[in-house]
Amino acid sequence: FNSAKRINVATVGKIQFNDNDDINFNAAVNYQIPKIDNSAISSSSNKNDDEQMELLNIVQLFKTYEPKTQIDTNLNISGQDEKTQINGKLYVDNFSIKLGNKRLPDSNLKLDFNKQNIGINSDLYVENNEKLSVNGDVQYGKNTNINLSCKSDKIFLKSILALAKGVFDSMLIENDLDQFNVQGYILSDFDIKTDLKNLTSNGSLKVVDGNISHNASDLRITNLKATVNLDNNSVNIEDTSANVNDTKINVTGTVSP
Hints:
Layout: E1 6-17, E2 20-32, H1 48-65, E3 68-78, E4 85-96, E5 98-99, E6 102-103, E7 107-115, E8 117-127, E9 130-139, E10 145-152, E11 155-156, H2 157-170, E12 180-194, E13 199-214, E14 220-229, E15 235-244, E16 247-255
Parallel strand pairs: 2-3
Antiparallel strand pairs: 1-2, 3-4, 4-7, 5-6, 7-8, 8-9, 9-10, 10-12, 11-12, 12-13, 13-14, 14-15, 15-16
């Protein structure tokens, strides 16, 4: 491949299950192909059985989670590594999956790309009354800059685990999240702005009554509590402790850029 070559892809369509318009998409991507070491590319054959099984898995996952969303994207991607630049947008609107007999409210994620800057506008539901909102922008590359506002309802760790498993399963990502046991909740309301040299911040992030274990592991984290105070342009770790098996660990301190 030659790095000067580009790929242009544009498509509009939908994925239906039981005659419902579950997933609608409008996508356009212009991508500059990076140089690829052809010697690292291997070929394989006789994948028909695996492909048929994967298709059956996709159908079963659609029946289980009934994912719905509208995707609108138009991206122009060029460069490599720290010089990668992206222009355009990626909007995921009205995303929802079904967990058990309950359908989650619609979540929305809007990403606006301008060279090495990503504008973020999101409202993400992990349960009916558990929403996380993240807004702001992130600059990557040599001139890293973060400017984010994060606010959430009381979000239970069980809700995060159930949503993560539903999303991973829907994307056919192998996982063992059903082997985890969790309790407790997270509460956040903070603003943070930093270029990794200077910091402007306020608000807090809390973890309350946390317990985490895995069925295949002897490791147990119990009585987890944490408070990260971002007031007065500093990151202070306060009243933070946990029992790791039978050992209690306390953490305090200040994090500076």
